[in-house]
Design a protein that fits this description.
Helix content: 55-70%
Mean pLDDT: 84
Order of helices and strands: HHH
Amino acid sequence: MLPPVLAVLAQSSPDSGAFLGDDLLPYLVLALGGALVAGNLAAIFRPPPEKARKEGDLERAPIARSVVMAVVGAVAAIWALASLLTG
C-alpha cells in the first residue's frame, strides 16, 4: 500500500504536465482555507504571551475579524474538499 502522498501523485494522469494533475487548484484552496481556519482560531484561543508582545501590539486578536476570516477559510476548505471528492 502506498503512502497517501504517493497515492495522490500516482493517480494523476500521465499526459498532464501539471504537478498533482488537474487538481492543483483545489488542493491549494484546501491548504489556504485550512490555514485560515487554523491560524485565526489559534489567534482567538491562544493569544501571544505578554513577553512576546512588542510595543503597539494588541493583547488579543480582534474577535469579529478573526471569526469572519475563519468562516471564509472554512467555506473555502469545504468547497475545495467537495470539488476533490466529486470531480
